[in-house]
Design goal:
By secondary structure, the protein is an alpha/beta fold. It folds into 2 domains: 96 residues, 2-Layer Sandwich (Transcription Regulator spoIIAA); 260 residues, no CATH class. Helices cover 71% and strands 6% of the residues. It has a 4-stranded mixed β-sheet with strand order 1-2-3-4, with helices on one face. α8 packs antiparallel against α13 and α10 crosses α12. 32% of the residues are buried.
């Protein structure tokens, strides 16, 4: 009867005048009156003996949850609330599932960081396995090309030699000259305290012939050439040109990978030699104009102390670095998914992988040559 007389009465909470310790609730305690419901509970007194909720005409889960929170805030047992018989089932069900949940532990990002690290290790391991497999496939195709010379592409080889080698000569020469000058300056600052500035000659010679010449050249080509290979092959992959090559009965490895690989194998040792000459020249210029070492004395000292084995150590690493740079660049290009975003991501990945692998291999090679006393 009450529901039919007041079908949409707003929720209300007031103290019964006849019984001052009793709080009476009335109206519709539903989600339709959520704002009025919160206001009523906010204005209600927090000290009472019992709550008469039989005046509530309509009740839903929101109303029950709000009353549970109100009882918890007031420190009152929810059993003190007297509900209508038709509301008791809903109240019991909501009360059973509204138990206090344990507070979530505060996260400091350690688990997320470990998760990202695990994914990165897994991705890097997968990339290494793919690179090893691609190396094997390329070696098989090289042997096949040696047996079937008609597969060889001399025009593409010469074209890539020009792009990889001759176009990079100015950049490699200038940077190597400046690095050689910097090494001479730094070495002179340390050796001046011992009166041994003349040993700058040996410092520059050994550093460039063994390490800096080939390493600097490989890093330049890793950023310049590996990215170019990935972008070129990736663009062809996104335009489905590689699928067209396969449809025509040609092998993309023979057509795209082997000429680039051979071009780098030929040009990286030559660029390393250019870098060595430029680095030694940088040390000579600094010695002549900043360290008061006459060029004749500098050259004589270089002639007396330089050892050819240092040159061979540097040049021996050049083909290995060339193979790594070419294979990484071509493999990342072939792994492009067909979108412009994928081309950019794979180009960045190629540069990072090539530089990282070059530095890691150079470190292991330096340790090996040092242990072998060569």
């Amino acid at each position: 009867m009450t529901t039919s007389l007041r079908p949409h009465a707003p929720p209300a909470a007031h103290v019964d005048d006849a019984t001052p310790g009793h709080l009476r609730l009335s109206g519709d305690w539903t989600i339709e009156h959520a704002t009025a419901l919160s206001e009523a509970l906010t204005a209600a007194p927090t000290t009472f003996d019992a709550v008469d909720a039989t005046g509530i005409t309509r009740l839903d889960s929101l109303g029950v949850l709000q009353l549970l929170r109100f009882a918890h805030r007031c420190g009152t047992d929810f059993q003190a609330f007297d509900f209508r018989e038709e509301h008791r089932a809903l109240v019991s069900a909501i009360e059973d599932v509204a138990d206090d949940r344990p507070r979530r532990r505060r996260e400091f990002g350690v688990a997320a960081a470990l998760g990202r690290m695990g994914h990165a290790v897994q991705d890097n391991a997968r990339e290494v396995m793919a690179l090893v497999g691609f190396l094997g496939e390329t070696l098989v195709k090289l042997v096949r090309t040696a047996k079937e010379p008609t597969r060889f592409r001399p025009t593409a080889l010469v074209h890539h030699m020009e792009q990889v080698g001759f176009d990079a000569v100015p950049l490699v020469a200038v940077l190597s000259f400046l690095v050689g000058a910097v090494i001479a300056f730094l070495g002179a600052d340390v050796l001046r305290d011992f009166g041994a500035e003349i040993y700058v000659v040996e410092l520059v010679n050994v550093a460039f012939l063994r390490e800096f010449g080939v390493l600097l050249t490989a890093i330049i080509l890793a950023g310049r050439t590996a990215s170019a290979f990935t972008a070129q092959i990736g663009s062809m992959k996104s335009r489905e040109e590689i699928d067209a090559i396969r449809t025509l009965g040609m092998d993309p490895i023979d057509l795209l990978v082997i000429p680039r690989l051979l071009a780098l194998l030929v040009m990286l040792p030559l660029l390393t030699f250019v870098a060595n000459i430029a680095g030694l020249l940088g040390g000579l210029v600094v010695g002549a104009y900043a360290l008061d070492i006459p060029p004749e004395q500098y050259l004589a000292r270089m002639h007396d102390t330089i050892k050819v084995r240092h040159l061979w150590v540097g040049l021996a690493k050049a083909p290995v670095f060339a193979a790594v740079i070419a294979l990484v660049g071509c493999l990342e290009g072939l792994q492009v998914q067909g979108t412009a975003q994928s081309v950019g991501e794979r180009t960045t990945s190629a540069v990072v992988q090539a530089i990282a692998l070059v530095i890691v291999l150079d470190a292991f090679a330096a340790l090996w040559f040092m242990v072998m006393d060569f």
